[in-house]
Automatic annotation (TrEMBL), chain A:
Membrane protein topology class: Multi-pass membrane protein
Name of this protein: Peptide/nickel transport system permease protein
Domain ABC transmembrane type-1: 87-276
Stored InterPro entries: BP-dependent_transpt_permease, MetI-like, MetI-like_sf, OppC_N
Residue ranges crossing the lipid bilayer per the database entry: 95-114, 126-146, 254-276
GO CC, any one term: plasma membrane
Primary residence: membrane
Taxonomic source organism: Nonomuraea jiangxiensis
Keyword entries, A-Z: Cell membrane, Membrane, Transmembrane, Transmembrane helix, Transport
Family of the protein in this entry: Belongs to the binding-protein-dependent transport system permease family.
Localization annotation: Cell membrane
Domain of life: Bacteria
Automatic annotation (TrEMBL), chain B:
Gene3D superfamilies: P-loop containing nucleotide triphosphate hydrolases
Pfam families in the record: ABC_tran (PF00005), oligo_HPY (PF08352)
Family statement: Belongs to the ABC transporter superfamily.
Protein name, as recorded: Peptide/nickel transport system ATP-binding protein
Organism: Nonomuraea jiangxiensis
NCBIfam families from the UniProt entry: oligo_HPY
Length: 289, 322
């Protein structure tokens, strides 16, 4: 049903135009730089730093120095190594939970919004009920049920974000299916699959891509929070949330232990949010030129 | 007969949008379906394309009853009927290029393949007065008039036998309206398709339609050849509509007798008993309030009207009243 009826469009030319518009704006570019830096830290950082579990009892709670650029914690572990490995945990939690929410949520939203009938009210009441819980309360509850681990964090955060994704998708679908271009496709004999994948889904892609870039930082904060509360990644695995838990005991003696992970969470979150705003502007063909 | 609608009824919940409407369109004929907003005229168009399911009645396309055909069975017939929409902004998929929009019907009905489609699209774009470079543009890069030409190209590229045009020019600037109307007229003469032209604007119809049907609250109140309707409107509602349309000659415009209708169109949820027009008709009398006048043609010259006052030797004159 998804035979492509596309007359070839100059896609590369379009991409080039989008990139040029994107590059001209300072805030999205700053976001992109932050996100790239975060990705480099998460992907390459662990390779160049030492073992995050390596303890040095002669240098506990040491301030930043040449040997330990971010200082050491109470067990003499290198904070920079732990930040880099923690970035990897954050990236996994952010991206995987976002993907989980998208992969499950978008089809549900599409089907509920497109076919309505009995499915839509059931789905939407469930969404309303789950949205009535604050995001973190919901995530904490799920994490407590699933059990503390990175997998648990991903599943908990993914499902906690699910209602928002379903609701956004369905809302977009409802608006788009009333458009005359959908009526025109039906009048031409297009099948449901073709209409959903070639007409409805591409037209609700921009808000969903933006939502994806919001879902990642939300999940990064969520992972830190769950780990901070002991419901997420378990020590000794380094996570920014776990590092904060330790750091609060030494706030006056070794404030850098709290500052680094806090700063990282803030910068990574900020980067994704700025990038998301920029993408929203660029992805909408109506805002072109 | 390319299209025959028999006693079509479409209710949206309590709203009786179309309430027993019959009409026919012959081969190559243009029928202007005229009515105020809320008269149900767009619903008729949607029913013809099966974009909405009729509540009752029958729709025949080229002698074949399509009222209850499944979507699958309907598919091959869709080559022969197409639609032009009112809003040029929501009728084109913003994610497709103009070439994709116009070429899609060709590919769907396997009339052209990927290699031949762009040639056909260019030819069609030229026919509707667009340069072929437009094929690589996106809808948002076009003006309203250009978009409507794209909509026309999409509707006509399969050379359908019937085109349903739902207010195709009323969203456009007046200056653009004329050029698009001329284009539709030229294409219709050229390609010979039949057309159900839905509009609220009688002056548009005068210039384009072979026959006119006037709708009021889900029913046809009068129909006939365009020249006849304009020369001798029989139903008081038609007379009122005609008197409301301005005339280009200022002297004639000044001396014309105007019929000003009081009030609004009654709600189609609860249409008036008897003649549906009696609440606004200057000539209404007792019978109009209780007895619904049938669409009748006392002179037998293909110009029926649904009014008690129309008889073989008399036509009501709403303007004479007062």
């Amino acid at each position: 049903m998804t035979e492509t009826l596309a007359v070839p469009a100059p896609v590369s030319a379009r991409r080039g135009r989008m990139w040029r518009r994107f590059r001209r704006r300072p805030m999205p570019m700053a976001g992109l730089v932050l996100v790239v830096a975060f990705l480099l830290l998460a992907l390459i950082g662990p390779l160049v730093t030492g073992d995050p579990a390596q303890q040095d009892y002669l240098a506990t709670l040491a301030p930043p120095s040449g040997a330990h650029p971010m200082g050491t914690d109470d067990l003499g572990r290198d904070a920079f190594a732990r930040i880099a490995h923690g970035a990897q945990v954050s990236l996994q939690a952010g991206v995987l939970s976002m993907l989980l929410a998208m992969v499950v949520g978008i089809p549900i939203g599409l089907v509920a919004g497109f076919y309505r009938r009995w499915l839509d009210p059931i789905v939407m009441r469930l969404v309303d009920v789950t949205l009535a819980f604050p995001f973190l309360v919901f995530a904490v509850g799920l994490a407590a049920i699933i059990g503390p681990s990175l997998k648990g964090v991903v599943i908990a955060l993914g499902f906690a974000q699910l209602p928002a994704i379903i609701r956004i998708t369905r809302g977009e679908v409802l608006a788009i299916r009333e458009m005359d271009y959908v009526a025109a496709a039906i009048a031409d004999g297009a099948g449901d699959g073709h209409i959903i994948f070639r007409y409805v889904l591409p037209n609700c892609a921009s808000p969903l891509i933006v939502q994806a870039t919001v879902a990642i930082p939300t999940a990064i904060i969520g992972e830190s929070t769950l780990s901070f509360l002991g419901l997420g990644v378990q020590p000794p695995t380094p996570s920014w949330g776990v590092m904060l838990t330790t750091a609060q005991q030494y706030l006056s003696d070794a404030p850098w232990l709290a500052i680094w992970p806090g700063l990282m969470i803030a910068l990574a979150t900020l980067g994704f949010n700025l990038l998301g705003d920029g993408l929203r502007d660029v992805l909408d063909p109506r805002s072109a030129r | 007969m390319i299209l025959r609608i028999d006693n079509l009824v479409k209710h949206y919940g309590p709203v009786r949008a179309v309430d027993g409407l019959s009409l026919e369109i012959g081969q190559g004929e243009v029928l202007g379906l005229v009515g105020e907003s809320g008269s149900g005229k767009s619903t008729v168009g949607k029913c013809v394309l099966r974009l909405t399911e009729p509540t009752a009645g029958a729709i025949e396309l080229d002698g074949r009853d399509i009222t209850h055909l499944s979507r699958r069975a309907m598919r091959p017939l869709r080559r022969d009927v197409h639609m032009v929409f009112q809003d040029p902004y929501s009728s084109l998929n913003p994610r497709f290029t103009i070439g994709q929009i116009v070429g899609e019907p060709l590919l769907r009905h396997k009339v052209a393949d990927r290699r031949t489609v762009s040639g056909r699209v260019s030819a069609m774009l030229e026919k509707v007065g667009l340069r072929q470079e437009m094929a690589s543009r996106y809808p948002h890069e076009l003006s309203g008039g250009q978009r409507q030409r794209v909509g026309l190209a999409r509707a006509l590229i399969l050379e359908p036998r019937l085109v349903v045009a739902d207010e195709p020019v009323s969203a456009l600037d007046v200056s653009v309206q004329a050029s698009v109307l001329n284009l539709i007229t030229d294409l219709q003469r050229d390609m010979g398709f039949s057309c159900l032209f839905i509009t609220h604007d009688l002056s548009v119809v005068e210039f384009l339609a072979d026959r006119v049907a006037v709708m009021y609250l889900g029913k046809i109140v009068e129909s006939g050849p365009t020249a006849e309707i304009f020369a001798e409107p029989r139903h008081p509602y038609t007379q009122a509509l005609l008197s409301a349309a301005p005339v280009a000659d200022p002297v004639r415009q000044r001396d014309r007798r105007r019929i000003v209708l009081g009030g609004d169109v009654p709600s189609p949820v609860d249409p008036p008993a008897g003649c549906r027009f009696h609440t606004r008709c200057p000539l209404a009398y007792d019978a109009c309030r209780t007895e619904e006048p049938p669409l009748h043609d006392p002179r037998g010259n293909g110009h029926p009207a649904a009014c008690h006052l129309v008889t073989a030797d008399r036509v009501p004159d709403a303007a004479a009243h007062r």
